[in-house]
Amino acid sequence: MNKLIIFCIGMLYMGTAICQPIPSIVGSDKEVNPYQYTVVKRGEFKQAAVSSAHPLASMIGAAIMKRGGNAFDAAIATQLALAVVYPNAGNIGGGGFLLGRKTNGELIGIDYREASPEKSSRDMYLDQQGNPQLNLSQAGHLASGIPGTIAGLFATHAYAKLPFEVLIQPAIDLASMGYVLTEKEASSFNSVKEFIAKNSTTPTVFDRAIRWKVGDTLVQKELAQTLIRIQQNGAMGFYDGKTAELIVAEMQRGKGIITLNDLKSYTAKLRNPIIFNYRDHEIISFAPPSSGGVLLAQMMKMIEKYPVNKMGFQTPNSVQLMIEAERRAYADRAEYLGDPDYWKVPLKTLVSNAYIQERMKDYDPNKAGTSTAIKAGIIKETEETTHLSILDALGNMVSVTTTLNGSYGSRVVVGGAGFLLNNEMDDFSVKPGVANMYGAVGGEANAIQPGKRMLSSMTPTLVMKDKKPYLTIGTPGGTTIPTSVYQALVNIIDFNMVVGDAIDAAKFHHQWLPDEVFVEKDFNLSTKLALQKMGYRITERGGIGRTEGIRILPNKRKEAAADKRGDDSVAGF
Ligand code: GLY
Asked: 198: left (phi > 0), else alpha (psi -120 to 50), else beta?
């Protein structure tokens, strides 16, 4: 029976009957050619658009919508494609958050964040002296939470139109036929292949004696087989049967703790989004267990009463105001935010006007604020996490951020199954006051507990203007995610920038601890000097985020933009 379905599905992309043969969209002579493609940074499309971290994934999302799928279908197909062509963050071994708005106004928040395994415990990363062993929370088998992505994609499918079997086929094709690497991908594989070889217990496709180079083809046969099992058996093709057995066997070989029961009992959850107004725009973002929506609401409401536009784009005054909002919001993150199913998050208060105004009472426009000096780590520059934004012809909006946490996650490939596992356990607070890989600290609210979901910074966001769909936006970047979305929105709303300029503009980031401001290399030099004079410690770092945004223009066309910082690319029609 399965064989017949696959045979039929292998040839079909649309149509009401599952066995109606329709040509595949992936191939050297097909609409999506994995051996020849180009990065497209900006585009204006009449009907539908996708912006994601990889040109092939964006093209697949657009092709699915062309064939009758809606934005939710495209979100599923694009994420699955990213799991093949963007293995450092696209994933089936990680988790994410989807925020959607249907044309009828219904808001959908799907939480498929990884969960802590049943054998996990609060102090599992402390040695006998109570010292944190961050090498264990950040890499290797013990670093992984129970993957949520496949459960999330099936939860998303409730809002889609095409059969799941159809939506997964392009990813199967990409994995089995292979795809050609860009220069950035080849260099990324070269920088990580040794770590993957060291952490994995079986040979992987990333490992080879010679260096990867642009134009090489990556074929992932084991991953293709895993995707086929999901195509044939649904979510149970991942959480049960052969794939689950391979995950558990990998865990046993590498002294990890995820069990078959952990996998079988994982479920995606629906969450009510966070909604707030900013200068006549309605902003919708993700609630805990992501900190993203709370941080975004706090930061934007803190600056709303100030004339940001008059202060000028990235002048010392406007940047200082925005930094001080960042500082206050991130201080709250460390204290109050965690998985609401395990910790009472004072959500209403945190986003209430009265509380937010109170927080800015001690803001001094002439002087740098200070954060309590406690130990905090250094922000690392990795291309962790990935975001996709989608708008369809009907007006459905989707914003998805998905992650393995660090670049290539735990750097463990599941033997025989061909996909990378996350290192999301590091997003928990392994010990109060001890910084994680992003320098973020936390306490009891985000302590490890079996079943609990680790606090995230992912901020998939939608914006309504005049009660109509306006913008879908989001970004990777660990703790810099909320500040990147915040700055892109201020650039669009306060400084009237087009989406591409708003996301490409130099960024700055403050997260309370460490008490310093991180700026990109192209950040305005005179503003930097003026901030230093006020007392800010400024540290230059590599690119912040890779933001993808799509806006609906007054003439209804879709203005899509992909971040300049990577191979990010738009597609549409
Ligand atoms: N792992 C990055 C985040 O969820 O914020």
From this structure: alpha
**CA 266 – ligand 1 centroid, Å:** 19
Residue spans per domain, the chain: 55-270+393-424, 274-383+457-549
In terms of Cα–Cα distance, which of 413, 424, 488 is closest to 453? 424
Q: Is the CB of 478 under 6 A from ligand 1?
A: yes
CA–CA dist 573, 562 (Å, integer): 16
Residue 43 host element (H or E): strand 42-45
Report how far residue 151's alpha carbon sits from residue 129's, in angstroms, rounded to the nearest whole number.
38
Given the residues 149, 385, 401, 403, the one annotated as active site? 385
Per-residue model confidence (pLDDT) at position 20? 55
Amino acid at position 38, single letter: T
| DSSP for residue 129 | T
CA distance 439 to 432: 13
CA distance 269 to 109: 8
Other CB atoms within a 10 A radius of the CB of residue 468 amount to 10
pLDDT at 401: 98
Binding site membership of 475 for ligand 1 (Cβ less than 6 Å): no
| Tokens matching residue 210 | 């010679």
Check residue 65 and give its pLDDT: 98
Instruction: Tell me the β-bridge partners of 550.
Output: 472, 560
382 is catalytic: no
| CA–CA distance, 444 with 99 (Å, rounded to integer) | 27
Phi, psi (rounded to 5 degrees) for 126: -105, 140
Give the CATH fold of the 274-383+457-549 domain.
Answer: Serum Albumin; Chain A, Domain 1 (1.10.246)
> Letter for the amino acid at 378?
I
- Sheet containing 107-112, strands listed edge to edge, beginning at the edge strand earlier in sequence: 269-270, 107-112, 95-101, 397-403, 386-391, 49-52, 569-572
Distance from residue 551's CA to the centre of ligand 1 (Å): 25
pLDDT at res. 370: 85
Q: Is the peptide bond before 288 cis (omega within 30 degrees of 0)?
A: no
DSSP string spanning 503-565?
A: HHS--EE--SSS-SEEEETTS-HHHHHHHHHHT--EEEES-----EEEEE-TTS-EEEEE-TT
Query: In degrees, to the nearest 5, what angle opens at C-alpha 256 toward C-alphas 252 and 261?
Result: 80
Q: What is the pLDDT of residue 377?
A: 29
> CA-CA distance, 302 to 323, in Å (whole number)?
11
pLDDT averaged per 10 residues in sequence order, the chain, 573 residues: 40 48 81 98 98 98 97 98 97 98 98 98 96 95 98 98 96 98 97 96 96 98 98 98 98 98 98 98 98 98 98 98 96 94 95 93 88 40 81 98 96 98 96 87 93 98 98 96 98 98 98 95 98 96 96 98 97 98
Cα 530 to middle of ligand 1, angstroms: 32
Confidence (pLDDT) at 382: 57
Give the tokens for residue 504. Answer: 């490409």
